[in-house]
Amino acid sequence: MTTENNLNGTAASVVSTSPFLKTLVLQIRGQDAYGVYRSWSDDLLLKAFVVSKQKKREISIEGEVDPVTQARIMSFFRAVAARIEQETGLISQVVIDLSHEGFGWALVFSGRLLLTVKTLRDAHRFGFDSLEKLAEEGEKFVEKGLDLAKRYREVSKL
Amino acid sequence: MTTENNLNGTAASVVSTSPFLKTLVLQIRGQDAYGVYRSWSDDLLLKAFVVSKQKKREISIEGEVDPVTQARIMSFFRAVAARIEQETGLISQVVIDLSHEGFGWALVFSGRLLLTVKTLRDAHRFGFDSLEKLAEEGEKFVEKGLDLAKRYREVSKL
Fold it and tell me: Which residues, 6 or more positions from B45, have their beta carbon under 8 angstroms from its beta carbon?
């Protein structure tokens, strides 16, 4: 790994202590049909989710959202869905609806229950300050979804 | 109106007896910022929603779904949402997620409750056999949504 690809010294430990990051890594590897990432470490895989404030300012919000960024948004919410499935057994759907201007919705639902509702804006700049922040935000969505799935089990089974 | 644009003799009465079709007409007229449809009758406006089986076979499902067809799908589900709002006071969101191949989802939700969930396929061919069928299908979504909104009011308010 080159120095440039090295995020920080604690990356591996962040992944190993976060069930969300572990699931996200599995999501990305599961989509990797051509084995591009086979030799990449987990922290290198997740590096693309870390976008500093400075870097965000540099990303243009003109035009379509880059397909790679769209795939990243999809992986993030698929990981939320997968974590909820692990805990509850509920199979859920992920729908990402993005306009050409980078505005839209990310939805995770099971039956008639919306486990996650997130409005997206400036989706071109989708990313988090650090791996810790990525883990934290992901876990927040998972917890909210788990709470709803528990309280409204009946609706999630419709 | 030319003979070609004349759907059938009972069109006006179908619209006048269907709360769904009335709402759908209002949705279309509300989006008509340039007044293109100002001089069109209601039945002529709705004619685009009537696509015979024969005609469907003639529509290619290759490539992107035509923007006009996408707008028609949006109007249909916006009308479902508007009818539910009229009856319940619930404000809802409509999300249409279509892949480039015409597959996807149409969702109407309020709070954390999904009032409408429809998988779309071959969306290029979106349409109904007749105005009566259009009214019937629309009412079906409205009734289902109303039933859910009544049973799970709490979830729709989250």
Answer: B25, B28, B29, B37
Torsion of CA B33, B13, B20, B71, to 10 degrees: -40
The amino acid that residue B136 corresponds to is: E
Residue spans of the domains in chain B: they are 11-156
Q: Model-level pTM?
A: 0.84
Q: Please list every residue in chain A whose beta carbon sits closer than 8 Å to the beta carbon of residue B111.
A: 114
Amino acid identity, residue A92?
Answer: S
Task: Look up the ipTM and state it.
Answer: 0.82
DSSP-based three-state secondary structure for B50? strand
The model's pLDDT over A90-132, given as tens digits with 9 standing for 90+, comes to 999 999 998 878 899 999 999 999 999 999 998 999 999 999 9
Rounded Cα distance, A106 and A110, in Å: 14
Measure the N-to-C terminal CA separation of chain B; round to a whole number of Å: 48
Mutate: best of A70, A90, A91, A97, partner B, most B CBs <10 A: A97
**Quick check: A92 and A110 in contact, CB under 8 A?**
yes
> Which tokens hold the place of A32?
């990797």
Q: Which CATH superfamily is domain A11-156 in?
A: Protein of unknown function DUF269 (1.10.3100.20)
B112/A117 Cβ within 8 A: yes
Alpha-carbon gap: A39 to the closest alpha carbon of chain B (Å) = 31
Q: Which of B9, B77, B84 is nearest to B41 (CA)?
A: B9
Q: Which residue has the tokens 């939700």?
A: B109
Across the interface, of A107, A148, A152, the residue whose CB is closest to B95 is A107
